[in-house]
Amino acid sequence: MNGSDHGEPLQDDDDGVSRRGFLRCMTWAGTGVLWMANDGLPRSVGLSSALAATAPKPTGLTFLQISDSHIGFDRPPNTDVLATLREAVAKIKTLPVKPSFMIHTGDISHLSKEKEFDDANQLIREVGLPVFYVPGEHDVLDDEQGKLYRDRYGKGTKGAGWYSFDQHGIHFIGLVNVVDLKAGGLGNLGEEQLKWLEDDVRGLSASTPIVVFAHIPLWSLYPEWGWGTDDGARALSFLKRFGSVTVLNGHIHQIMQKVEGNVAFHTARATAFPQPAPGTAPGPGPMQVPAGELRKYLGVAHVNFVPGNKHLAIIDTPLA
Amino acid sequence: MARTETWRVAFLLVPLLAGAAAFAVDAPTNEVKIENFTFAPEAITVLAGTKVTWVNRDDIPHTVTAQDHSFRSKALDTNDSFSFTFEKPGEYAYFCSIHPKMVGKIIVKAP
Ligand SMILES: [Cu+2]
């Protein structure tokens, strides 16, 4: 598992996704995901391969996903989460093709403190791109359950901070599934947000590529650890008629990917610390790794969209 | 952190008080440990008037939130504690509002 392994883009086969590429993607650990929307369904590639000559040449919209910065966390395996975020930012700045914008899929901060948000912003701003955020559960820990987050990031959003926008013919939807969680349950979107979503996509033609991003996975990835969203299936039911739907999440600090019909699901690495693979530890807390290995488990994602292609290409790139 | 220190002092007092008063419930049952994303023990029984203390031993923050909202901690960082005194008999179901899969119960009996 080294950087050069990630040089090959996922190849389409009959069902639209390469099994080999899929498995390869599952074994990556890391920092950022480069999303490439080549035809509606995203493919992911690590940042290191995006930087390499072997990376698919982006010809359409390219945007970047970072996640789970957890600024304020200061324990093993990463006592300097600012340093790893700084490295992720540096990597993004060296991309040969400048992405159009970034999305941050939540857990910007560890404890929802002003200073944590400040520190994160100061670094992320250096990328020089517009950034679209959704909150993670760590961003809404203040007494008013996310007021601090909404004051900073919530301009023009609805409810707890959800919104949509259009770029390059793609309809992007940022959802919030980390507030008003119910005892015994998983992530939660709630009636108000679901109603808004249904209305939001009603007027769109079925050929409009859709990209949904939210912190907690919208699919039941591993409910035993809370890795899923109780009403995620209802949200997806509103998107059934669309030919290309891409769902981008964070929260689990590792790459997981699956394709179901027209819907591609993908989770990004964190920039802060890795978490164990489902069921491989007593709980989903930070996974301890040797100091020299940490950066292999952190990363960002890069996404490229080319009109006419069914799948977006996603490049997951580890920090090292 | 000043808050953590205060709680630690309060926590040390619990066994002393329990030893001094014959009717007190055993000290260990007044503490709920938060570890590996679980409340342990998941259910405890105490007498009315007992102060229960939760201590977070995880590297990730958690909360202690009553389902009926009768008590609610702030986000507890590693080694932070939260205490609540249960005055009225009854069953108090609670959960972690950040990780709602985490649930627990305090059963309060009349003294
Ligand atoms: Cu929790």
TrEMBL record, chain A:
InterPro entries noted in UniProt: Calcineurin-like_PHP, Metallo-depent_PP-like, STPP_CPPED1, TAT_signal
A Pfam family assignment: Metallophos
SUPFAM superfamilies: Metallo-dependent phosphatases (SSF56300)
UniProt cross-references to PROSITE patterns, sorted A to Z: TAT
Membrane-spanning parts: none
All residue ranges annotated as the Calcineurin-like phosphoesterase domain in the record: 62-254
PANTHER family, alphabetized: BLL3016 PROTEIN, METALLOPHOSPHOESTERASE, CALCINEURIN SUPERFAMILY
Protein name according to UniProt: Metallophosphoesterase
Organism (species): Microvirga terricola
From TrEMBL, chain B:
CDD domains listed in its UniProt record: Amicyanin (cd13921)
This protein's record includes keyword Ribosomal protein: no
Keyword Signal carried by entry: yes
Annotated ranges, domain EfeO-type cupredoxin-like: 9-108
Superkingdom of the organism of origin: Bacteria
SUPFAM superfamilies per UniProt: Cupredoxins
Residues making up the signal peptide according to the UniProt record: 1-24
Keywords from the named record: Signal
Pfam families (alphabetical): Cupredoxin_1
Annotated PANTHER family: BLL1555 PROTEIN (PTHR36507)
Protein name per the record: Cupredoxin family copper-binding protein
